[in-house]
Amino acid sequence: MHLPWRRKQQESEEYTSESSIPSEQRAQSPRWSAAKNTFKTHVATAQATTQRTLQECQSNVQNRLRAKAYELGSRPVAYLVLSGFVLGSVSTLGATFVYRRYFRRLRTAEWVTPDVLQRKRWVRGVVTSVGDADNFRLYHTPGFGWRWPLKFRRVPTLSKELKEQTIHVRIAGVDAPEGSHFGRQAQPYAVEALAWLKGTIEGRIVYCQLVRRDQYSRIVSVVTLPPPFLPGWLSTGRSLALEMIRAGTGLTYEQAGAEYGKYGKDEFLKAEAESRVARRGMWKHGTVGETPAQYKRRHAQNGTDVDAQAQGTAKAEKVKENLKESGLRGILKRFWA
C-alpha cells in the first residue's frame, strides 16, 4: 500500500545523513582517491620492472648456454679423438701392467729379466722335476685357473710339452751333496738327499723369490713351501732350505753371494748345528768328510768341471743376447709370446 508520508520520511533521513558529514571530510575525499591511484600506479610499475628484469636474466642465461653449446659443438671431433686416445692409453697401460704382473707366465730362465730380479719378485709354480739335491725345474703358474673349482688351465706332464717351458731354479742358502756328473763320482749321501727333495717337492706347488742368476744360468731363489691353511699371498710357508738343513740333506751355503731370505745366516747355522747334534741324514756319523764346496773346488782345480762351466757360459751368453732385444719388437715379442 502506498503511503506518501513514508517516502517523504526516507528522503528526509537521507538528506539528514548527508548533511551530517563534516565539510572537511567531503573536501579530503578527492585527495585520498588521488593518493590511492598513485600507489596503485607505483605498485604496477614495480611489478612490471621486476618482471622485465627476470625476463632479461633468463634471456642472458639462455644466450650463454646457447653460446657454450655452439662452442662445444663446433669442435666435437677433436674432443672425441682426444678423449678416446686418453682412455685407450690408460686402459692399455693398465691391462698391460696387470697382465705382466699377475698373468704373464715366465716360461724359462731367459724370461726372468733384470728388473724382475731387482724387485726380487715372488712367483708360484709347480715342480716338474728335480735334477740335483739343490735345484729343480719350476713350471710358473701365475694368476688363477690352475686349481679347482676354477680349473681351466693345466700343467703339462710330458717331457716334450715341458721343453723350454720351465725355469731352472737353484735353492738359495743351502749346499747339498753333489751327484755324479760329467764323469765325477758322487758324494756320500747324494742319492738319499736327492730322494728326500723329490719326495718333498716334486709335483707340488712352491713359492720362489727370484734373487739372481748364477754362472750356470740358473735362477737362485729363496724357496718356501705352501702354508698349511692360508693361501700363499696371505702368509709365508716354511723355508725349503731350512727344512733340508734340519733333515740333514744339505749344509749352509757360505760362499760369495749367498742369500738366506728373511731368516738370515744365523738361523741357517743354528739349524745345521741342531742337525749335527741329532745326527740326521749326512750327519749320521757325526761329521762330514768333504763338504760340497770343497768337492766342487777340488774338481774345478782338476779341470773336470770345465764342461759344466762351458754350458753355463753358453746359456748366459744366450740370455744376454735375448736381453739386448729391447725396443718395440722385443716388448711385443715378450708380451704376446
List the topology elements.
Layout: H1 4-20, H2 23-73, H3 76-103, H4 114-119, E1 122-132, E2 135-140, H5 159-162, E3 167-171, E4 174-175, H6 190-201, E5 205-213, E6 219-224, H7 240-247, E7 251-252, H8 265-278, H9 292-302, H10 306-323, H11 327-336
Parallel strand pairs: 3-6
Antiparallel strand pairs: 1-2, 1-5, 2-3, 4-7, 5-6
Helix pairs in contact: 7-8
Organism: Suillus luteus UH-Slu-Lm8-n1
Main location: membrane
Family: Belongs to the LCL3 family.
What would you note in describing this structure?
The protein has 337 residues and is an alpha+beta fold. It has a domain at 109-290: Beta Barrel (OB fold (Dihydrolipoamide Acetyltransferase, E2P)). 53% of the residues lie in helices and 12% in strands. It contains 11 helices and 7 strands. The protein has helices spanning 4-20, 23-73, 76-103, 114-119, 159-162, 190-201, 240-247, 265-278, 292-302, 306-323, 327-336, and strands spanning 122-132, 135-140, 167-171, 174-175, 205-213, 219-224, 251-252. The strands form 2 sheets. The protein has a 5-stranded mixed barrel with strand order 1-2-3-6-5. A two-stranded antiparallel ribbon has the order 4-7. α7 packs parallel to α8. The radius of gyration is 47 Å and the shape is elongated. The protein starts with a helix and ends with a helix. The mean pLDDT is 82. Residues 121-285 form the TNase-like domain. Keywords: Calcium, Endonuclease, Hydrolase, Membrane, Nuclease, Transmembrane, Transmembrane helix. One of its GO terms (molecular function) is hydrolase activity.
